[in-house]
Amino acid sequence: MNHIQGDSLKTAFIFLTLFVALRANALPINSLNFSTPLDTLGVNVFPDAFTPDFDFEGIVALNNCSGSLVRFEDSADSENAMVLTNGHCMEGGGVFGGFIKPGKHYLAKKSTRSFTLLKKDASSAGRVSATEIMYGTMTGTDMALYKLAKTYSEITSEFNLPALTLSREKAAAQDPIEVISGYWKRGYKCGHDGEVFKLKEEGYTWNNSIRYSQPGCETIGGTSGSPVLAAGTKTVIGVNNTGNESGQECTMNNPCEVDEDGKVFFEKGKSYGQQINLIYGCLGADHKVDLTLETCKLPREE
Does residue 72 contact residue 166 with C-beta atoms inside 8 Å? Predict the structure, then answer.
């Protein structure tokens, strides 16, 4: 899973020493565990990565992951705004053993987590805080929706930033996509390389995952929770969550694909995102998540 793991500042400084001696692309970032974002230490890990081709309006940086400021297709400006990220990026998680257990979810759970909103050029626009986790899970999909204290109109007035729109439709295979990371302030361009029937990683299973084409979207630690956008639009069709780091089969940070016949495929470097459109079938009054609705296909407690 493409989050930043670990709690050692010392490890970060060891990496800085190596960084001086090696080019940025000569050392695999995912092989190191550190919690302190290197950009806060004055290091640009990807000095040539940012280009004007990527628009960071609506992109969000978390302390360990990426995210996006989002709205539903029919959200009113008076409604509280939302942030989308991964279930494995929620507070209390982020380290193996702290993740949401398979078959479990969070629903309307209080939260005071803060997020950094980014401007078009990836600079900071300011910070916003959550009031609750509307819904979060790592079963079937890997997503979390936070409700913010501010409304869309308040965010527009204070930060002059638009929210991205969550699509009701599934991502279409072969369509061009962009994955934009607020944590690293970099973007990726590639194509939707087809749906994966089952994607397995350690004890987790995700359905109809989005496989990225290569080259282009070789995501790394810290890109977890980045929106998967229909290229050139503000429409979110998925959420980035994992990639096979070392060529292992179905282990942590090494997801494997399983088809309808049970055949397993895995390959080092393959990266994936998760569907987010199922949230629409679970929306009740005032856009509250209601898992009891007949139209709701999101996982419930086992």
Answer: yes
